[in-house]
Amino acid sequence: MTSKQDKARIKAAVKRRKRETYTPVVPDKQLGFVHNNVDCIGCRACEIACKDKNGLSAGPRFRRVQYIEGGTYPDVYAYKVNMSCNHCESPACLPTCPTGAIFKRKADGIVDIDSTLCIGCRRCEAACPFGAPQFDPGDNIVKKCNMCVDEIEAGRKPYCVMACMMRVLDIGSIDEIWRGSLETVAIGPADKVSKQVKNMANIELTKPSIGFVAHSKGKVK
Amino acid sequence: MSIEKLTQSLNKRLNLSRRSFLKSAAVGGASVAAGGLVEMKTAKEAKAFAYEPYPTDDQLETVVTSCAHNCGSRHMLVAHKWKDVIVRLSTDDGRYQRDGHFGKDDNEEPQLRACLRGRSYRQRLYSAERLLYPMMRVGKRGEGKFKRVSWDEALTHVASKMVEIKDTYGPTALVDQSYAGASYGVLHKSDQIEGLLGRFLGMFGCRTSSWSVPSYQGTTFSSRMTFGTIEDGNEDDTFAHSKLMIMWGWNPAYTFHGGNTFMYMRMAKQRGCKFVLVDPQYTDSAAAYDAWWIPIRPNTDAAMMAGMAHYIFTNDLHDQEFIDQFCQGMDAGTMPEWAKDKENFKDYILGKYDNEPKTPEWAAEICGVPAEDIIKLADMYARTKPAALKASWAPGRNAYGEQYNRMAAALQAMTGNIGILGGCAEGVGKAWHAEAVAYPYDQYSNIWFQSIKSDRWAHCVLNYPNVKREEIGLWPRQDDTDGQIPNIKGIFWQGSDWFNQLTNINKEIEAINKLELVVCMDSTITPSGLYADVLLPIATHFERHDVALPWYKGHYYIHRPKVIEPMGESKTDFQVFTELAYRIGGNVFGQAFNPKANRDYFHINDNVDEAYLKEWWDQKVIGHQHVDMSWDEFKQRGVYKFKLDQPHVAFREQIENGKAFQTPSGKIEILASQLAQITDWKKTMYGYEIPYIPKWIEPWESLNSPKTSEFPFHLISPHPRWRTHSIFNNCSWLRETYEQEVTLNAADAKQLGIRTGDTVEIWNDRGRVVVPTYVTERCMPGVAVLHEGVWIDLDSEGVDRAGNPDMLTLDEPSPAGAFAYNTVLCNIKKTDLEHRPGWDQLATSRAHVFRRDL
């Protein structure tokens, strides 16, 4: 466990490193995901849709529906936290890239990797606190979710969102998601959106563009 | 590399100006225009999908189709293809239906979004396990050695063998085990009872049919006896109107009973509906709907329900008006004249006949649920209106499983929750009626010469002729062949992996070696296929023309065009049967079997299939269902969604307008007229007595039986989420999301010294399997959960290293025909034996064997 002092030092170090290597892109509008941890049945259709869309073999999982469970029999609980790339405001992956393959789009804040520039050094993989960039041993490069930019440019939504059988995963302007003003069925009438859930990396590290409807046991105080 | 070039490249790599380029390039987008770039010939702007070509969806051809298997629902798949290759699949996004647009997803016409299995279809279609050519066995059965042969050779062999077997052993020598591998197309239908195979063998004059349905025979029996029909289901949108939903052994997060059931249940939750789960496991459904979890000992459900009934009766919480008006045999007042001397349900519950009142305390002893919880649930259910008790199929897949379903129907009836919006009479759950048949359907559709309980074929083969008719559940016949034991000498599997899926696999292995012909028709190799003499490659639903039906819930049709040409030499099952008919019986048989086709159907099937489908659409869909869309428009759109005037609720007509139920008495038969009048049980297909009112009957093994001293765990084998039975077991995407493992309670595991990930052996006196463990607090102590359908992978000792629970199940069906899949005691210990998660490693080598001439 890091002490308060350590955290401050880490923060300063991260800040220094970013300043030296990278001029942050301030997107016109930042897109982000929203996921309802409680109502998600954990079916992983989104994961498979993503694999199919991105032509991945077994191995890299851009989208990961994580199962959380706890309690003691028979008083138990379970919920899901669904995450792919959070297209962070300050992506930790980006400044680590020695070839400039990683970029953040001005228009919508999507973070992507140019596969022709990637040399597969895997530094970004280590830098990301959420496990978004993943090495594909078949192609020898790192790949990750790009929010299906081709679909977004065609005026549609990413494959994972359109695959969600429960309609609990969506995208939208992250500010609207956090404010709870996004028009989406992913957020129920009585639901509140939080930026973070339990056991997730400190969001100050990268400022991930994601919102959750957290389970009562998954709330961060 | 020359020195000069090496220097150049070194210079490039060390070039400081490049580094400055990188810095600016990292900014990305079109804003990169720094001077350094111009010098760098290799430099280019970072962009998405940099590897070209990356065909976007809009650059590809879009074809609407659907998934195909018998998972309990049916969803749209949209193939995006390049020439003859499906590049990716998406699903319904609201665009394809009439008046649709992207994102249209209302409650009246919700999107039909495919699940993870449907989305992984490309892996099955293009898998190494695809059968591409006809093959014939060259090794021993089960050894997996085959040689490639021509269609002509394969079909000649099958045809001549069929004739030989029929001539030698008579008209019962061939068993058809057709099932779900290609089910629920209107044209190419591998239905167990009345599909293409049954029709073919029936016309040929040699067929022993298999009548009990593995998934839900207990439930079917119950619905037929109680309501006179299996159409006891509501459409899934009705669930949004419930105030209380009791999910009894039901996990809609895994088994999608209806296309959007889980979504409408979420709507119910948002409207304040309370959820209860009665199940040995705290399932994902319980989590998603925040249900009150009542863990129950497997196979004791009927006892708990009896306890609830006792509480409801004794506290006068039952709906007497409803009972008097609609029920037969619920209490003394509703007994028909002819049955005045028979038992009624209420008096049975109160203990009048056996001096054993079925109190909540009595039930608690049996089912392990505290009496106060039974009372609380009974009270909730009786007082909340409307309340849905959804009695799922799984607890019915048990010894006397039909009693559980019958008992549930009694509870549904006594609380008046039948025929009302937000209530539930399921049961089987078949709701909206689809026009299901485009294939030739006539007097030949279901000819059989004997019919047995489906899991008794091995018993019949091994013990012939010393088999009693009740042992195999022989269906009565009206002629002098009634009661003749079939002399089974051959099996046909059409879209069926039954060898892997029926109970007691070791007994099947013993029996299969006594057969003279085993034919497997499928699109991939399966564990069953390994035991076949002839493998016939069947085109998948992407490779033939058809129309998809919703499963038991849903009101829509999805067009399934031939998206790609059949791979390899595969043919449709309809083509194969037609060709065999011509070979065996010339034009007479050929044309009778497939009236719209000629002999060349084996090579050209497009026009004939189109003719069948168009006729079905014009006559049945437009004619009977009054659909106002032409066949051509339907083909062009790919989907037709019905709009219903009001939510479809089973038995609404009966309750609101007094229409008679389809039972002999026209009432809800808690006392089943048919059963009450049977005198000689041996001569029925059941073979053994079944009570005419729902009763608790002690199963032959459970956590309450003395056998637990040797086998202390009760094994249940629910349907997995990542397979449809055994289909998709070979897909690595799905394998990666879930693993075949046994779920154990944490306290049990601790006692055994087992932690998550440890490999264990599970065994009983029928077999032995090896699997990793998942230790959790979400499972009831004493219960082990192992999902069905994994492809058996036997080692030299006959131990299944893949972990198929049917190595341990008993091939002893319940009298009503329910498979006793969940009535299994076993023991568990840590092991050094290696788990083989299936065929992912083996597929390579086996594909190698399959794909060349030996």
TrEMBL record, chain A:
Keywords: 4Fe-4S, Electron transport, Iron, Iron-sulfur, Metal-binding, Repeat, Transport
MF (Gene Ontology): 4 iron, 4 sulfur cluster binding; metal ion binding
InterPro entries referenced in this protein's UniProt entry, alphabetically: 4Fe4S_Fe-S-bd, 4Fe4S_Fe_S_CS, ET_IronSulfur_Cluster-Binding
PANTHER family reported for this sequence: ANAEROBIC DIMETHYL SULFOXIDE REDUCTASE CHAIN B-RELATED (PTHR43177:SF5), PROTEIN NRFC (PTHR43177)
Annotated source species: Candidatus Thiodiazotropha taylori
Protein known as: 4Fe-4S dicluster domain-containing protein
Family matches, as PROSITE patterns: 4FE4S_FER_1 (PS00198), 4FE4S_FER_2 (PS51379)
UniProt key word Disulfide bond: no
